[in-house]
Amino acid sequence: MEKINNLKKLLKSSNEAILIHSPENRRYFTSFPSSDGYLVVTKSDAVFFTDSRYIEAAQKNCTCKAQLLTRLSVEVKSFLTDNKIEKVYAETERLSVSLLSQLRKILLPVKITPSQRLENTINQLRSVKASDEIESIKKAQAIAEEAFNHIVTFIKPGVTEKQIALELDFYMLSHGAEALSFETIAVTGAKTSMPHGVPDDVIVKEGDFVTMDFGAVYKGYHSDMTRTVAVGKASDEQKKIYDVVLSAQKNALSVLEKGLPCSEADKAARSIIEEAGYGEYFGHGTGHGVGVEIHEGPNLSPRSTQKLQAGNVVTVEPGIYIPEKFGVRIEDMALITEKGYENLTSSPKELIIL
Hints:
CATH class of the largest domain: Alpha Beta
Low-confidence stretches: none
CATH topology of the largest domain: Creatine Amidinohydrolase
Radius of gyration: 23 Å
Number of domains: 2
Shape: elongated
Oligomer: single chain
Helix content: 25-40%
């Protein structure tokens, strides 16, 4: 209930309430996964309304009371009326115009107000992980690393990108992952220059790089890692660029600490790549927060105005991508602590030649 109690602090009076509708935020505050439902929070109460598919499980596992939802105009409206609620604050970033219009019509005379203050508070709460959240992320990462240990024994000339991606997916899902963090990226050869290339029937050849970006979900929390390996051999140019990316990644990790501007973490990686003459080939940010979503705050980017806080879990993933030739990305996850950081990724980063 601690997470929900943090929401209650936003309410100024007993005639105000908060409505959470997005799946990610519902799960964060209730610890219960579902594809449908509404969490309604007042100063003195919190109820998760969900349909018949989930109600039995929700009543057993939800961190607050759970009530059967048949129609918004019945149970939710009655709850608001019974509690004399006049104003309801709603999410902004995940609230569509259509849903807002529907809520305002159905829940009259209650006033539905999208609140950026609410959204900012939720994002801030989610960015600082509690101990149980950190343990779930660590478990998710451990599953992903087991998959990496397996996949390096699977990759060889003749296998396809799709086969590598499917092998990673199957391994994670059959070794404790409840889901995949995102659609696994596994690309080889010239396609490694595409940061988010889509696995296809391209065959791995000797001398190719293979870049894999993947993650597992455990108890609702994601992991995220990227490794680039060489098959059979690596050219001097491949080794040089790999070493530049590795140096940039290590340098960014080395500066991580509570209070550091996120833009400085990005600069620590970007400056190494720029000094090596490859700045134009690094187009994305250095990292992002990870939690109940694969991308959440804070962002390690040149434009970020945020500062790192103890409890943040962020990726550090610089890359160099040379069109039509090859690319390299190396990604770890780091937990910001009171004294610095803890690297949550233990898989080797030195160039592996299979």
